[in-house]
Amino acid sequence: MKFILAALLALGVASASVAQTASPLPGTLTVTSAKPFAVFLDALLDSIGANKMGLVAHACADCGAKAIGVKIPGNRVVMAFHPRYAVRMLKANVAAGIEAPIRLYVTERADGSATLTYRTPSAVFAPYKTPDLDVMARELDGVFKKIVADALR
Length: 153
What we know:
The protein has helices at 2-21, 37-50, 61-67, 83-92, 121-125, 131-152, and strands at residues 28-36, 54-60, 75-81, 102-108, 113-119. It has 153 residues and is an alpha+beta fold. It has a 5-stranded antiparallel beta sheet with strand order 1-5-4-3-2. The radius of gyration is 16 Å and the shape is globular. The termini are far apart. Residues 1-21 have low confidence and may be disordered.
């Protein structure tokens, strides 16, 4: 099991360095915060709840690295959504269910501050070409924009 975790972590670290040089997908937004990584991460988690969304999952690459004796900068994927949107999404297009939750990627910069990268929900759901899904995704664009803005304050 530890070998599998180490292999997955190595792939994640390798793909992260490739992703930094690749062009982002459409609708990808990146913001930086002067706040220290841990402070910004806490603010983001608080903002998700304050904006009436749910924290679905929280993946911690730096925690996994630490478990195998490797130190890497802070690296988290925070996944947020809410059942009220899930119901609407699935009613509009069941195949779109693979896109939820919306992922927010927080990385620690060399100076200890944080960068957040995410794809807007309208970009995530656009390939499905479903009008009701597009309406919901535009609503979510505003929700996630507010989540990010609140976390940056």
